[in-house]
Amino acid sequence: MKIAVLSAADVAGMYTATLMARGHEVSIGPFGHVPTAVTSMIEDGIEGVLILTDDDENFDEIAARFTRATGRPVWRNLTEIPR
After folding, report:
1. CA-to-CA distance for 22 and 68, rounded, in angstroms?
2. DSSP-based three-state secondary structure for 39
3. Is 55 exposed, middle or buried (0-12, 13-18, 19+ CB in 10 A)?
4. What is residue 30's predicted lDDT score, i.e. its pLDDT?
């Protein structure tokens, strides 16, 4: 599964390693301006989004628009992601 991780760079590395060990392909954000980010994620074939920060309006908006556009999941915890 191809997963986008929305997080501060210092946190994303540990989660990326875990996801890759589970066989997932990972892209790390931020991905820029919200509409551009969503379009880019859809074009890249992202199948789900993991948000690792609380109260980041930009990441929340990216995730919400991505889900509305694709129906694909948004997770807030590593344990929610299917293996």
Report:
1. 27
2. helix
3. exposed
4. 64
